Amino acid sequence: MDILVLVLGILLLLVLIIKFKFNTYVSLIITAVVVALGLGMAPAKIATSIQNGIGAQLGELALVFGFGAMLGRLVADAGGAYRIAHTLINAFGRRGLQLAVVLASFIIGIALFFEVGIVLLVPIVFAIAAEAGVPILTLGIPM
């Protein structure tokens, strides 16, 4: 029965986000409350449980995103993003930029968490797109 409640909770989450276009955060809260009630959790404990779960998750992610954003900003401000962009454009040419972004993402992704890698690569992708005159999504999707 518990698995059925969880599956229905996932379906509810998808319906709220995809069909009704609810904000993802609001949808997660609504789904958490519905699943908790479905699993028989006491209503008084639901808010505390959601607070603890979200607080723990956001606490970890906030540090990762914060430090990653700072490092990405330092790379961009120091000219590192443009230097990397010029190097990749010269090495791969304009036709091979997507492959260059994939390889850079792979190399950066080996040593870093996903979130930090994304935050670091975004300024580089923006710089490459600006220098090469290609749409950002052309390079952002392979990332």
Structural commentary:
The chain is mainly α and 143 residues long. Helix content is 84%, strand content 0%. It has 2 domains: 2-41; 61-140, no CATH class. The chain is elongated and about 60 Å long. The model has no long low-confidence stretch (mean pLDDT 84).
Shape: elongated
Largest sheet: none
User: What's the average pLDDT?
Assistant: 84
> Rg to the nearest angstrom?
21 Å
Helix content: over 70%
Number of domains as seen in the coordinates: 2
Order of helices and strands: HHHHHHH
Discrete helix count: 7
Unreliable sequence segments: none
Which structural class do the helices and strands define?
mainly alpha
Q: Distance between the terminal alpha carbons, to the nearest Å?
A: 40 Å
Number of E-state strands: 0
Q: Beta-strand percentage? A: under 5%
GO molecular function: gluconate transmembrane transporter activity
Pfam family, one: GntP_permease
Protein name: Putative permease yojA
InterPro entries: Glcn_transporter (IPR003474)
What structural keywords apply?
143 residues; mainly alpha; 2 domains; cell membrane
Detail the topology: elements first, then pairings:
Blueprint: H1 2-19, H2 24-38, H3 43-77, H4 80-92, H5 97-111, H6 114-132, H7 136-140
Helix pairs in contact: 1-2, 2-3, 3-6, 4-5, 4-6, 5-6
Short description:
The protein is mainly α.
